[in-house]
Design a protein that fits this description.
Length: 277
């Protein structure tokens, strides 16, 4: 297209030159000094041809600048695409590393839970050693005084009766209350109270010498306290028959059993509980 336009302008320019040549008069010197119509026409066409050539040159220059700009833009876009692909690759690698880290942490947590469960199963039950009997100092043997036999028998009988009257009778409390399992495998004696002044989760009932049963209380406030953190309050003393929920109630299936070992009521059988709405 540009070649056709150039040829057209060159043709116009040649026609202008030819017209200007033919327009020169050949008659007289006076007529040749006056410009004719063809002279003006030739000048106008030559001026138009010159303007056209200038415009053609400017248009050609603008076209080349546009082509160069497109080339530079294409090069810039290719660099941008390379940089963007590099960033995407880096993000993908970071994502893979993050996923791998999460999986490693999950595996470590699972191993810690298994070790904790094994430690609980392998932990031996604490058995309190009986306290050693106090050794009394040897009593010096003195020769017995000669006392009439009836008087001795009477004095011994009176002393025995007096000692029986003076000895206090220790009657165990009917019920004891505990808030949580505060020592490994049971309840410490010092943590039990006869009259609770705050919500207590467990009720302990002595059944004999060193024997007792326990259950979860029916107090709604104490049950809400236990259900707010079942792992801390219930897991060490109870077996679940259903899943605990925050707004549920606790139902006793069977009571647990305790044995007194020194200063601790040791759990020899956990209580069975379930949960209902």
């Amino acid at each position: 297209m540009m070649q056709r336009i150039k040829k057209s302008w060159l043709l116009v320019l040649s026609l202008t030159v030819s017209i200007a040549t033919q327009a020169q008069p050949v008659t007289t010197t006076e007529a040749s000094s006056k410009p004719t119509f063809y002279t003006y026409l030739a000048l106008v066409l030559a001026l138009l041809a010159l303007i056209g050539l200038i415009l053609l040159w400017l248009r050609n220059q603008a076209g080349w600048e546009k082509i160069n700009a497109e080339r530079r833009s294409a090069v810039g876009n290719s660099d941008g695409m390379r940089e963007l692909s590099g960033r995407v690759s880096a993000l993908e690698q970071a994502n893979k590393a993050f996923v791998k880290t999460i999986r490693d942490l999950e595996n470590q947590v699972a191993k810690l839970r298994e070790q904790q469960a094994d430690n609980r199963k392998a932990a031996p039950a604490y058995v309190a050693q009986p306290a050693p009997e106090p050794q009394l100092p040897p009593v010096e043997q003195r020769p017995a005084a000669r006392v009439p036999e009836p008087v001795v028998q009477k004095s011994v009988a009176s002393q025995a009766a007096q000692s029986q009257r003076s000895m206090p009778v220790n009657t165990p409390p009917a019920k004891l209350y505990a808030r949580t399992v505060d020592v490994p495998g049971g309840f410490s004696v010092s943590s039990l109270v006869e009259t609770p002044n705050r919500p207590m989760v467990f009720v302990i009932t002595p059944t004999g010498a060193g024997q007792a049963t326990f259950r979860v209380t029916d107090d709604p406030e104490a049950q809400r306290l236990a259900l707010s953190d079942p792992y801390s309050y219930l897991s060490d003393a109870c077996n679940y028959q259903s899943r605990p929920e925050v707004n549920s109630r606790i139902h006793m299936i069977s009571e647990g059993k305790l044995q007194l070992q020194g200063e601790k009521w040791h759990i020899i059988e956990k209580a069975e509980i379930s949960f209902y709405a």
